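Re: your question about Sulfotransferase family protein

S., sorry for the slow reply, the queue was backed up all week. Below is exactly what I fed in.
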Amino acid sequence: MALDIIGAGFGRTGTDSLKEALTILGFGPCHHMHEIRDHPEKAQPWHDYFCGGADLDLDLLFDGYRSQVDWPGAHLWRESAKHYPDAKVILSVRDPESWYASYAKTIKIFRQTEMPPEARHMKQIQEFVEVFLNDRFDTKDKAIADFEAHVADVTSAIPAHRLLVHELGSGWAPLCAFLGVPVPDQDYPHTNATTAFQKNNIELQR
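Result:
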């Protein structure tokens, strides 16, 4: 199964809601960091690539998925766009200040959390996240500059006909128009708010 949709947006840009939206629209299963969190066996191939020197095998990493959003897949947007030339690219974005505030309350804390020994796959996730995030977001100014540079990189590299810049809160209309599907008769999903992320992080430490 080749990817039909490549998500290039950073975590905390509404990616979990986008995952649910794509599933509703028939583009699931959709890969997201939560897939790795909730299925421990899925962490190993990512860890092998980022930390173990394994060759990049996108078909292995995204085996069984029609779409992908969020990190770690979003870190490989350029490689995925080349490997899946027929796939469309969605760059989820939000106000950079708002994005950093959400990142600082969620992913930044997760990176610093001491996981219990039995949560081996969560430790693996932390380890490979450190590889591709490294010191990029050490300060607010550095993080926002990286965020803005990423948006510029994606929008300059991907042809306009293949790319949707999907603003947080923009709902169904632009997404459905881009994908050529009808707007569903239900509200656009709103999932994985900051409080939900923090609650899940606490549960993982128990």
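Confidence is low (pLDDT under 50) at residues 201-206. The CA atoms of residues 95 and 168 lie 8 Å apart.

Happy to talk it through on Thursday.
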